[in-house]
Amino acid sequence: MKKIYKIITYIILSLLIMAGTGSNLSVNAEEIRTKTDVYSYFNPNLKSNVAVIEISGLTSTQRIAKESLQSSDINVGRVRSITRRAYSSNTSKVEKKASNSSRKSYTYQIKVNLYAVGTTVISYTIDGVAYSTTLHVNAYVNPVSSLSVTGVNSSADLAPNLDFTKGYGTGSFANVNQKKAKLSVTPATGWRVTSVTCDNETTGYEYKKYNKSTTKSLNSVTLGNLRQGDNCKVQITLADSYGNYMSVTLKLCNPATIK
Predict the structure, then answer these.
(1) What is the tens place of the pLDDT at every residue in 81-140?
(2) Burial class (CB in 10 A: 0-12, 13-18, 19+), 14
(3) Cα-based distances in Å from 6 to 1, 13, 15, 17, 242
(4) pTM above 0.70, yes or no
(5) 251 Cβ contact partners less than 8 Å away, ≥ 6 residues apart
(6) What DSSP string runs through 100-120?
(7) How far apart are CA 59 and CA 123, in angstroms?
(8) Kind plus residue range of the DSSP H or E element containing 16
(9) Beta-ladder partners of 192
(10) Cα 38-39-45 angle, rounded to 5 deg
(11) Beta strands 206-210 and 129-139: pairing type?
């Protein structure tokens, strides 16, 4: 009986030790999170093109050595700046004997000036350990293939009249009297519509619709009733498969009042 009791006691103590060790590891363990590949675009119409590489999960003592930052092809991209930020997270106690705990992690953002379409490898070291991210710079293509609003411009395609020279899309069109106006968008290949916002600045009416799917696109939305004398702003947000975002803003109003 004593032998069995000793065995049970040993097992319980072993489990307690293992549980304690596992808990310490989950609380104290830090994991540096990097991306092996980042995708961006080069738009020759912009004054500057910038890509951002983010590294997260660093401790207070872990730092990127600035002198280690290099670009394998400076004709494609050159490191512009590096920024370090701190983030805090809190864990609330569950049991009476437990205590609240907090932890702070650090994130780096590496900004790279882009000069041409191509590929460059951005390398850096953290505590003497070498890391690298391959930056793929693709040719910029407007993310909207076609776009229309019922009644606006005789329901014709508005996409050819959008201006993307500033890195985002804008277009101004005369508003119309139209009940249950419908917005229809066909994104370019690789892009999807993630949200649509319609803000009637005259009446104060605001409508929003979101698309949480990472594969499907929000291709049509009913904007409600349009009136010729109202000033409306419709904002469309698109995302590509790499996590890049682009916005398109339509102004529906009297052209004489557009600023």
Answers:
(1) 999 999 876 555 555 555 555 668 899 999 999 999 999 999 999 999 999 999 999 999
(2) exposed
(3) 9, 10, 14, 16, 58
(4) yes
(5) 170, 171, 172, 173, 231, 232, 233, 258
(6) -EEEEEEEEEEEEEE-SSEEE
(7) 20
(8) helix 2-28
(9) 239
(10) 140
(11) unpaired
